[in-house]
Amino acid sequence: MFASLRNIFNARPVAPPPAVPDGTRYYAVGDIHGRCDLFEALADAIDEDDRRAGPARTTVVLLGDLVDRGPDSAGVIARARRWGDERKVELLVGNHEEMFLDSFEDTGILRHFLRHGGRQTVLSYGIPQQVYDEATLEELQELMAARVPREDRAYLAAGRDYLVAGDYLFVHAGIAPDVALDQQSSHHMRWIREPFLDHADPHEHFVVHGHTITDGIDGRINRVGIDTGAYRSGRLTALVLEGTERRTIQAVETDGTIAIETGAVAA
Prior knowledge:
Layout: H1 2-10, E1 24-29, H2 36-53, E2 57-62, H3 73-86, E3 89-91, H4 95-102, H5 107-124, H6 129-134, H7 137-147, H8 150-157, E4 162-165, E5 168-171, H9 186-191, E6 206-209, E7 218-219, E8 223-225, H10 230-233, E9 235-242, E10 245-254, E11 257-264
Parallel strand pairs: 1-2, 2-3, 5-6, 6-8
Antiparallel strand pairs: 1-9, 4-5, 7-8, 9-10, 10-11
Helix pairs in contact: 2-3, 4-5, 5-7
């Protein structure tokens, strides 16, 4: 009996679930990677969900990696820019945006960029396949400078590394464990996997991230990953946060048809 009482009094208090500020609603969108068709469908679904959910100060957070691998990165950037004219949309910079922007100045980075999905991005701006195939890296840089609108480059370059909302931290890849937020490097926030992914202790904030593909929502005690590999799986995910509630909206392609699926996520 006394042992049971000691266990009760010595038990650690259960921490309250993370929450966004009262009166706000956040939609975090995982890595789009050139799948403009899924992005269009998801954006429409988010707009409709927001109307139905009632009044709130709403923010859409694009978690980065809008470009590469999928067929229409140019279309994704154009859609994101238009969406930002219609509602509050925050863009976080991913490692693929970093490579894309740096490739305009550095042929070594351009070569790396093209090998990791950048070829599809370049072609999405209307550079013919044969011209692309025959161009040197220097010629390709000139073609990119001529074809990619300065406004698109400026939009990506103006993106943030992270966003804090109440108990949540939105970031593309993750953070270095046990490092204060104001000491985190852009490289970690855009590129990290380990030791972030296997870190089991609480962070300063609950982290919402993309970057690392998983078959479903990767929910842990200190983070949630929502990169469901849209370019190869046909599933693009948005995480909806309101108060302590978490739920998902997904645009899912099956046999050429895109449907919207919704679900709850345990807090």
